[in-house]
Amino acid sequence: MEQMFVAPPETEEDCPVQISESAFRQGLTGSTERFDLAYRQVWLYAMRHYPSMPPELKRKDNLIAQSNRAKADERVVYEMAELAQCLGFHSDEIRDLVNQSPDRQIARAALLQAKKPGCFQYDARVFETLID
């Protein structure tokens, strides 16, 4: 994660510190402490929300019976990416997650699950307008 962290110049600067799920305060830190503080905040977010972010299965050819695994909550993943970006972490993956609206993803999934695939097909030209 150090490679993704964009440190401010070598001066003391306000650093956002999450004090509740939706509130921040600013704390004066040096650039060496800033990464450590940012990393810990992302780690704490992950620990608070880990039940909502199960890992995706890597192998599809595994024939062993497994429990029904839930998908990651798109909003939780989006908010974690947003927090990481706010704290100074930057990568293509973080940017892609922040640019995806969880509301649109949920609406898309609901539309696709509402109709049986073999019995109904959306018009590709109209489908995106239904999501908005």
TrEMBL record:
Protein name: Uncharacterized protein
Cross-referenced Pfam families: DUF3723
InterPro entries: DUF3723 (IPR022198)
Superkingdom field: Eukaryota
Organism per entry: Polytolypa hystricis (strain UAMH7299)
